[in-house]
Design a protein that fits this description.
Oligomer: single chain
Number of domains: 2
Largest sheet: 5 strands, mixed
CATH architecture of the largest domain: Alpha-Beta Barrel
CATH class of the largest domain: Alpha Beta
């Protein structure tokens, strides 16, 4: 197999000791790193040599929560209400749209330095084909929801159990078809969309599917005030309390956003062992979550998937939040 030598790179290994090589080298055989350090040894001259002087080499970023193939980008940013833009437009998507738009999503991920991403979408089979060819790692989930997305524009929740059953079947089929594909680079996750968009029976079916096949679950959780209001109206509880009652709140679950969580909600999260997927919300108490020992992952959501920009935004957001609150978190961010 052909070898590639990357030389003169500033290598940040991100290992437990924080090892750095200021002018290091990386040797690869095909797509496998065989040696790394100040110098590397090869019994033959590598076929490809990359001079990475003035460049940084580090492990790929993990994008913990993302939605790709967004053909309504530029609209959502102007209006800023996903109940009026994203969700209604999702109702018009077709399976072939996802496959056609997949290559551009893969290119964006790779350009942003992502080597692993959790991607949740309505029709992910097409994107799975793209990922298999592109070469990075993904955890794929098929969105499971059962409301009329267009009627959400005027605040109407019309639940369609038949739609939920079809979505659940897509999730089962996704797992059967793609789990472990591409030499293990593609895995699957069970993804009920949100507590205001999926009924309790659907969450219980998702829980059973995850436990049967030892899969993780992910859901949007306390993402919006509309979600919180609808769940309280239906069940008299916050979304987090609702999922705890269903037995879903555990270390198998990751919840995206958790922006509108109460103090009691945070206690339940901490006790359950679930993780939080934090995106771009400035108001989220990220440092408090970390201090409580809650596992936190960062995700780009459905904006541009630039991980370095995401890190900058979170740093600035936590500084702003800390200073407005008059607390000491600002010192920890400096």
């Amino acid at each position: 197999m052909e070898e590639t030598l990357i030389k003169n790179a500033f290598i940040a290994t991100m290992d437990g000791d924080g090892t750095i090589y200021r002018e290091g080298s990386i040797l690869l055989e095909a797509d496998v790193i065989t040696d790394l350090g100040p110098t590397v040894n090869s019994p033959r001259a590598p076929e490809h040599i990359i001079d990475a002087r003035h460049m940084v080499a580090l492990p790929g970023f993990v994008n913990a929560h993302s939605h790709l193939q967004q053909y309504f980008r530029g609209i959502y940013e102007l209006i800023g209400n996903f109940y009026e833009v994203n969700l209604p437009l999702e109702g018009y998507r077709r399976p072939e749209d996802m496959e056609w738009l997949g290559p551009s999503s893969c290119a964006e991920f790779i350009h942003a330095g992502c080597t692993t991403a959790m991607v949740v979408y309505t029709y992910p089979n097409g994107f799975a084909k793209n990922v298999k060819e592109a070469g990075f790692r993904t955890i794929l989930g098929a969105d499971i929801e059962e409301v009329d997305l267009v009627k959400l524009m005027d605040g109407t929740y019309q639940y369609l159990p038949g739609k939920g059953e079809a979505a659940f079947k897509r999730a089962v089929d996704l797992h059967r078809r793609w789990e472990g594909e591409a030499r293990g680079r593609i895995t699957t996750i069970v993804a009920p969309k949100a507590a205001d968009l999926a009924l309790p029976e659907t969450y219980l079916k998702c829980k059973d599917l995850a436990e049967t096949h030892d899969l993780m679950m992910t859901t949007h959780l306390n993402q919006s005030w509309r979600e919180v209001t609808q769940v309280r109206r239906l069940y008299g509880k916050t979304p987090i309390q609702h999922l705890q009652t269903l037995g879903v709140l555990n270390d198998r679950l990751t919840g995206a956003h958790c922006t509108y969580s109460t103090g009691n909600d945070i206690k339940l999260i901490t006790q359950s062992g679930m993780g939080i997927l934090h995106c771009r919300a400035v108001t989220n108490p990220l440092l408090q979550w970390l201090d409580l020992g809650i596992p936190v992952g960062l995700g780009t959501d459905d904006y541009f998937h630039d991980m370095l920009q995401l890190l900058r935004q979170n740093l600035r957001g936590q500084r702003t939040r800390a200073r407005l609150a008059g607390g000491s978190e600002g010192d920890a961010c400096n």
